[in-house]
Amino acid sequence: MFLKITPAVQKRLNKYLKQPALKVLLNFDDGVGLYSRVQATCSLEVNFNLIIVNSSADLTDFDSQVNTSMGSFLIKGYSKEFLDEKNRLFLTKFGSLCLTGDRTGLIANNLPIIDLSQTTEKPKIGLEPIDEIAN
């Protein structure tokens, strides 16, 4: 599995990858783990984001990696099923990051870059409340 990163995206990520202590997580935002912002959902949406972390980050959920044009990015192993063997990360005409696969086509059309490289404490899970079941 390979992720081709276009030069425009490489330019955005270079400031992080020049620092050897930082790692890039290609995070499948599915409600699993410390870095997920959403609760588990039954919808068909696939949400990915790029998270920049330092050497003190908890990487428990990131048990695999994907090779990229810029080295290896860590990933939740099971989230590979949402990627193709050949993938591409590029900037749209609006400046957002877009992830596509050779066979699948559009995988995620707006990947944010979340910089947690200065964080020294574990992130707090900030899930949005959902409808509560009445007693």
TrEMBL record:
Gene3D superfamilies: HesB-like domain. Coiled coil: none annotated. Residues 1-114 form the Core domain. This is Core domain-containing protein. It holds the Pfam family Fe-S_biosyn. InterPro entries: ATAP_core_dom, HesB-like_dom_sf.
